[in-house]
Queue: 2 jobs
Job 1
Amino acid sequence: SYDLTQPPSVSVSPGQTAIITCSGDNLGDIYIFWYQQKPGQSPVLVIYHDNKRPSGIPERFSGSNSGNTATLTINGTQAMDEADYYCQAWDSDTVVFGGGTKLAVL
Amino acid sequence: EVQLVESGGGLVQPGGSLRLSCAASGFTFSSYWMTWVRQAPGKGLEWVANIKENGSDKHYVDSVKGRFTISRDNTKKSLYLQMNSLRVEDTAVYYCAREGDSEVFDYWGQGTLVTVSS
């Protein structure tokens, strides 16, 4: 089964670009999804199929996936973007989540 | 408006059982796969199980196989998770989620806390 590895934490200054990675063998061969979870709240989908944004998600959120690494990029990071971010993949009929990355906007 | 409301969580002793429910509204429940995802305190998300629209196909994470059973009642627009032989490590907030188009989990409930402790 897939093993998705994320850095435990990432820090970024307001207005700068935040990059969160998700690593795994041949990740580029499958679709990656990204979820945002703020404290005390349920997760929210921010990117699906590697680079597609659901309606209502700001354009500053983007994604890519190639080789062994998928990336979530947040341009012009805002204080409201401080949250935990999880990458996710389908492994046949089951689901795998990465360990999560805490994004701090300092 | 799509709503998912979980219930049934609580404190249970190791080895005990609990049945979680998820009441759905605002969409055609019988047209969607549904999923349970859990989150241990201070930890990440873990997918638990999912079930096909008509209940004919189910999948589980290895750690709950043989102990948990996912089911649904489309007439009641409800999703269930029967949890038996509970272990301390099953302690978590359990979320139900809808599997929407493009394989996404597009709507989530607010979660219900299950605590397994003596």
Note: The radius of gyration of chain A is 13 Å.
Job 2
Amino acid sequence: EAEVAQSPRYKITEKSQAVAFWCDPISGHATLYWYRQILGQGPELLVQFQDESVVDDSQLPKDRFSAERLKGVDSTLKIQPAELGDSAMYLCASSTQYNEQFFGPGTRLTVL
Amino acid sequence: GENVEQHPSTLSVQEGDSAVIKCTYSDSASNYFPWYKQELGKRPQLIIDIRSNVGEKKDQRIAVTLNKTAKHFSLHITETQPEDSAVYFCAASAANAGKSTFGDGTTLTVKP
């Protein structure tokens, strides 16, 4: 069964450093999402792509976060510089045209 | 934007009992309502969903009901088992827009 892939699974960094996360969606899924999940809360959408275009990045802190999906397949989320408050689980998901979202295993980020 | 409230935040039941989790949403344009199960340290997994043209949907021991007029939907789990213990998230989104707003989750504990 096809799954969304993410790497790395865990990342520890010091504040002010740059970090990058990678996501490979399920083949054929045109829509890709990046979420941030803080412990005890539901996932919060950071950015949504339709193919290579951003369709929603209203909750993305654009002064330090960036995301791209250049060829409309895999995607990278970057944080520069990382802050203590960025410690969270970063989840990638992809969906069919019918909105059914499938999540990757996530990247657990710890900023020291 | 959409606002989703989920109750209760924690729920403890005896094995074999039923469990009900409720969510309310604010945006009348929302018409897709999925439920996700997230076990500790794992990715959220879609367990059931409902669209606004349907009032109820069942899949074995789980069911979801939707009241569009009142803007609320509920997850029902019957004959609970210890392996049902997890965090459950509801979400709401508008068709084709894809953006899902999640509730804050319900931690379900099923006691053997």
Note: Chain A has a mean pLDDT of 94.
